[in-house]
Each structure stands twice: as C-alpha cells, then as structure tokens.
Amino acid sequence: MTVHLYTGSLDLVKKSGVGQAVLHQKAMLESARVRVTQDWSEKADAVHINTVLPDSVLAALRAKARGEKVVYYGHSTMQDFRNSFVGSNLLAPLFRRWICFCYGLGDVVLTPTPYSQSLLESYRLKKPVYALSNGVDTRFFSPSAARRRAFRRRYGLTAQDKVVVSVGHYMERKGILDFIRLAGALPDVQFFWFGYTDPALVPGHVRAAMAQAPQNLRFPGFVDQAALRDAYCGADAFLFCSQEETEGIVVLEALACGVPVLLRDIPVYEGWLKNGCQVYKAADLPGFEAALRGMLAGDLPDLTGEGRKVALERSLPNMGLRLCRLYQTGFAG
Question: Domains of the chain by range and CATH?
Fold first, then answer.
C-alpha cells in the first residue's frame, strides 16, 4: 500500500500540534510497513490531508480526480478555534462552515478523540468520522534523569527548585492567563511557558498579561523537540490549563516523559484520563492552585507510572496498526 502524505502547507503549521501530527503519521505508516510518498508523480492508494488551507482543498480535488482515496484529518473544530487568535470568535461560525466543506472532501475523516469525533458528527458531515489518537513517540519521549539535569543547568536551576512547565501558543484558549495568575500565586516556584505566536496574532489583553507576568515566569519561546523533551523531564509538574482541545499532543508527550500532569477538567479527556488515576484535574483557578501545591509538596500520590501506560498505549507503532485497520473499515464501501 502507498500513502501520499500531503505536506503543501506544512511550513505554515510545523510549529503547531498539526505539524507534529503530520510527522507522527509518517512514523505510524512506516512502522506498519506502508510506503509513504510526497510525490504526485507516484500513484497512491490514499492521500492524507491535515490542514484546511486552500491548497489542501486543491490537493483533495486532485486526488479525487486521480481516483485516489482522501483521508482528511479533523484536527480543528469551531470550539477550539474560539479564543485563539485576534478576531477568532467573530470568525468562528464561518470557520465551521469552511471546515465542514474541507472535511466533506474526504472519503473518511479521522480525528484524535471520541470527543472531537462527537463534535464533528454534530456538524452533520456526510462522511464517516473515526477517532484515532495522534500518538506519541514513546522511545523519544521517555523519563531521563540526565535530561532533567541538562534542563536545569540550561536555565540556571538547582536540583531543589520546583518547576512547572506548559506548552502552547499564546492563546487565551490554551489557558495562558490562568498560567500567569498561578505563577503569581506561587512565587517560590519557577514557571516556564514554551511556544511562540506572532504578537500581531495575539489579542491585546493577552499581550498585556504577558508583559506584566511575575519574574518567576519565563517565556523561552519555540524550542525543538529535544529541548522540549528536556523540559518535560526537568519539570516537577506539567500544567495544561487549556480550555478546549481535540486531544493535546503535548499532554501525551508529558505523560510519556513521566512528569506529573495537571489538566483542566474538560470533556476531551473523559474516558481515557481520569482524575487521581493517570493525571490530576481542576476546574478553576483555586482548584489548580490547590492541586499544584499538593503535587509539588508530595502530598498527592504519584500517578506517573499509570500516566506513562496511557502514552505507551498510544505509541506510534500501535497507532500505525490501528490506522491500517481504519483504512479497511473506512474504504470498504
């Protein structure tokens, strides 16, 4: 079997979760012994499309004209478009119409979780929608005392310093405002937010909050995967205050690295991440602060072993096998 992994818009999304998902798909397919190409001169059994930019629409139409099946990945929903970039709330209804048009070009639509599957099905798409995790490279992302030391040396931290890490764009939807407030509430803890967004796309109130962030909060910007792995391993907690996700690849990466994880209690985690079992969850700022204090003080049970099991279940080889089974199901008609 040959799969064309369309990468026409990859440069625009390579620093996002979508960009990482494309790399994961390549690894999944190769682990399942599926031939992967990015060359239109080669005939493929299926074309994978991951973005909803205009060039991807043209790619889907081209694939259909060649008699190739189209697998459209539903990474985006109207819900996770809100509270993101400047003007996103105003444009959200139009965005929903656009993604429905794009996803409708697929023979099947894949989306990371049963939650995002339920959202897309509520849009009344005419194509079947299946849930398949983005997966995580559990060989690359794994616990390491050496990487923990390397991270702390890089940022001038001692072995005794308490460190909390988060990852994402500078979006209100990603929970950056609560992260800033929590840094202010715990001045003896070092906070790091990894990721970057062009300031022109960041709403003014978010930029203002970042400018006034306390001194114990650092914004190192975008870092490569190796540096991010060191940050996970070097942290005492991974705090993800995101208000809406279709899965959260960074959550899987943190779990794979064996760092204690604290999440906002939102529907996307229901059924696979349980409070007090693999992660801790909180619904509001006081809940985050209380849980974080308990985790950092060692007053709450260590859940990292069970958390890594979740990541291992979603390893790229496992997801590659599931993807091949979905081909058989989705293309049967």
Answer: 2-135+315-330 (3.40.50.2000), 145-313 (3.40.50.2000)
